[in-house]
Amino acid sequence: xxxxxxxxxxxxSVLITGASGGIGxxxxxxxxxxxxxxxxGGRNEEALGAMQETFGKALRPLVYDVTDxxxxxxxxxxxxxxxxxxxxxxxxxxxNNAGVMLESPLSVTxxxxxxxxxxxxxxxxxQHMQLASRLMSRLRRGSIVNIxxxxxxxxxxxxxxxxxSKAALTGATKxxxxxxxxxxxxxxxxAPGFIDTPLTEHYxxxxxxxxxxxxxxxxxxxxxxxxxxxxxxxSEQAGYTTGHVLPVDGHFCP
Amino acid sequence: xxxxxxxxxxxxDALGLPPEKVTDGxxxxxxxxxxxxxxxxxxxELENVFDVMLDTDDIIDMxxxxxxxxxxxxxxxxxx
Lengths: 254, 80
Ligand SMILES: NC(=O)c1ccc[n+]([C@@H]2O[C@H](COP(=O)([O-])OP(=O)(O)OC[C@H]3O[C@@H](n4cnc5c(N)ncnc54)[C@H](OP(=O)(O)O)[C@@H]3O)[C@@H](O)[C@H]2O)c1
Description:
The complex is a heterodimer. Chain A is α/β, with parallel strands linked by helices. Chain A is 47% helix and 15% strand. Chain A has a single domain, classed as NAD(P)-binding Rossmann-like Domain (Rossmann fold, 3-Layer(aba) Sandwich). A seven-stranded parallel sheet of chain A has the order 3-2-1-4-5-6-7, with helices on both faces. In chain A, helix 3 (45-55) links the parallel strand 2 and strand 3. The longest helix of chain A is centred in the middle third of the chain and has 29 residues, at 111-139. The N and C termini of chain A lie far apart (37 Å). By secondary structure, chain B is an all-alpha fold. Chain B has a single domain (3-74), classed as Orthogonal Bundle (Non-ribosomal Peptide Synthetase Peptidyl Carrier Protein, Chain A), CATH 1.10.1200.10. Chain B has helices at 3-15, 36-50, 56-61, 65-74. The longest helix of chain B is centred in the middle third of the chain and has 15 residues, at 36-50. Bound molecules: NADP nicotinamide-adenine-dinucleotide phosphate.
């Protein structure tokens, strides 16, 4: 492998949403280990502050709600100002990781809950891609990774709203890979299976066992395993890969 | 370079046209060089040159060189 394949993130910034969550923290750590400057998005100022203490200048917290359209625009302005002032390298990567999972059968899913799923899991990533791609296209290079789910790839009883919101993001991933290729931006997704994070910690032992029985590797995945896949897709090692959905799921068979 | 020349240069770089072809009447989708991909590169170029972040509505409205000038004026870029 040539040196440049390993060094592309060293002179690059990556914006990661949901940075203080289980998978988010692992992606932040993996990117910083690889030399990137990370813009860490989240609502929990305290948690982001603690991460900044750990990582120092390599981590730049951005406190905002991804569903607040105006806040998202302001966040991109702040980000670009830091780049213009020479405080951070240009934006190269975007990881749309913030997400919430609604478990609710069709008959009891309110329209408000459905809209909330779509807002957080689809509309917010879409707006992030719109704004990030404009910054990336200035340099004609960039890499976007969306976190979708095996639930959306395979379908899951009682999770239709969540599945639909993530499937929408898969559709956008594949379409934008085609649309943004001429300006040097790759767009891919990672589809985790059952990963041990705060999102899944409410699973009681029996429910957990049921999921794991349908997982060929017979265990839950770790946030680091998801982060490694994200890092691969962000990096130039995946330079010839776009429009791809990479499962990190221990071969989940629903 | 004044702002008028900067604008002309930005259009010229983004669309791959000679600067003298960049006139106020030049309009989106009427020449092969100004298609949707070039539009994206153009927006990036204008934002870069004038150090602004355009709203999506303004990007949708930016359908000609003359229109681009009007829109950029909203972002405090003046064309004497
Ligand atoms: N864990 C799994 O098994 C699994 C499987 C498949 C896919 N995924 C996906 O992986 C991603 C990360 O999940 P995770 O397991 O790491 O869950 P997590 O620990 O609950 O983290 C989710 C993150 O999203 C952030 N977030 C939620 N709503 C937000 C909003 N409106 N504005 C800003 N941030 C918001 C949360 O921030 P706050 O701290 O501010 O709430 C949190 O940091 C999600 O997209 C999830 O759907 C997870």
